[in-house]
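This part of the workshop introduces the protein records we will be handling. An example says more than a description, so a record of this kind follows:
>
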Amino acid sequence: MATATQSIVVIDYNGGNLASAARAVARAAADSGIDATVTITADPESVRQADRIVLPGQGAFADCAAGLAAVPGLKPAIIDATEAGTPFLGICVGMQLMAQRGLEHAVTPGFGWISGEIARMEAPGLRLPQMGWNRLDFTPGAHPLTEGLDADAHGYFVHSYALRHGAVDELVATTDYGGAVPAIVARGNRAGTQFHVEKSQTVGLRILSNFLRWSPVREGAAA
């Protein structure tokens, strides 16, 4: 029996890094033998019909939130699709937008899918932004997104703001930069990485492959 082709959308809202994110998703699908089409789109109906949603982002929280809001129907489509159970992956600021609010430049509401807020990092003696490779700390086997990762797995980070006051049960991985910094979060069928999976080479491709194979329980659904 033929396996249906996965429809994966990379959300286009002038949030940056779209082409490289789409290429990485397509590469992860090909390397894993997953039949998939990857489309960069701002069309709300395409988002509602997609099998997977990827939301990249770089820059300021407030700017990315405004970019989403500026495309008619786009944010409601993302909310509708994920409430219906479509797996979602936010990358960098795309992950940050999952939080309750951001404090960069102004107080800006996020999706509110995970607990906490996005605030400037406290990293005494270290430069900001955190820029470059850093080790991921996680419990092997605790979440499907980290399946197959080595204990010494590293991600590529570029950020000055990070999640704080998050919920322990929504935290999949951290990194150490003047203290523990959330690196991967997940709640129900919505997940995000603070680091750039599309720039994280084999580690990023493995996480994307895991995302494409992930069959999460929809948030709010009975287990």
